[in-house]
Amino acid sequence: MVHLLRSLFTAVLLVLGAATALAAEPADAARLLGKRVELLPQLQAKTFGEPLHLISNESGGRMSADVYADMALPFARVASVLGTAESVCGVLFLHLNVRSCQPTHGAQGDVVMLSAGPKKGATAGTVYSMAYTMRVEASTADYLRVALVAATGPLSTSDYRIVFEATPLEGQRTFLHFAYGYNFGSLARMAMGVYLATAGRTKIGFTVVGTGKDGRPQYVQGERGSVERNVMRNYLALQAYASVASGTAAEQTEARLRAWFALTERHAAQLHELDLDQYLQEKHTDLARPPAG
């Protein structure tokens, strides 16, 4: 039971979405660029080694995180990746806990079926699948907004939202906002407690919450730490996927897997879980497995 709760909690962390407040905001480039102006000091500080700012929050039974970043990629490239369910699945699959992602197309729109589980040796009963409705809510020459939503999830979780917003910057760059959040109930809270008392007890996030006696920064842990790790993994997955645009399909997949691993290793204190060979072996196994029915 403990192992199952821990595995399902891992799945919960992977499929999060935007804070509900985003739905009430106007969707346009001017608002997004205004947010960039507000965050310019944090972006210019390059705390993460690049112009990136991360915010996480737990409030009223909702967990959320937001990444804002100046990406060294053209807007057209980022928009092309985020504009289709196939490439969004390709982005999400790079995460080490995602075992498969399958896009479908129907009369009601695109659906992304994501299966998540343990980072090693996924077996029947340890993987949880969820279906996300994907909508391109705005697509113009200077603004893109894509949302993935699911009403319910495992362990009494609900209102999953993933939102990508992007607008072009000078110099073939893109300003990106990636938002990620979900509501949780008592069962999810119990699973979090199990995870944080076992596999997650020593893991840290990115937000500095204090200074130790040795003068070193102390980083957020617990639920917020978990959300921060996973939102960063997914942001880096977008960066890795979009940075590869040539070669055969197999060559691109291999290059993206290696690029994602290299990007996460820049933040090894928070994100290192597997060696490169182990990560590639797990992903190649996942790719060889027949898609779920």
Map the helices and strands.
Elements: H1 2-14, H2 29-45, E1 52-59, E2 62-71, H3 75-82, H4 85-93, E3 98-106, E4 109-116, E5 128-140, E6 143-152, E7 158-169, E8 173-183, H5 186-197, E9 208-211, E10 217-219, H6 222-242, H7 249-265, H8 268-271, H9 276-288
Biggest sheet features: 8 strands, antiparallel
Number of domains: 1
CATH superfamily: START domain
Helix content: 25-40%
H-E order: HHEEHHEEEEEEHEEHHHH
Can you offer a commentary on this structure?
- The strands form 2 sheets. The protein has an 8-stranded antiparallel sheet, sandwiched between helices.
- The chain has a single domain (2-288), classed as 2-Layer Sandwich (Alpha-D-Glucose-1,6-Bisphosphate, Chain A, domain 4), CATH 3.30.530.20.
- Helix content is 39%, strand content 30%.
- It is an alpha+beta fold and 293 residues long.
- It contains 9 helices and 10 strands.
- The longest helix is centred in the C-terminal third of the chain and has 21 residues, at 222-242.
Descriptors:
single chain; 293 residues; alpha+beta; Alpha-D-Glucose-1,6-Bisphosphate, Chain A, domain 4; 8-stranded antiparallel β-sheet; two-stranded antiparallel sheet; globular; disordered N terminus
Q: What is this entry, summarized?
A:
The protein has nine helices and ten strands.
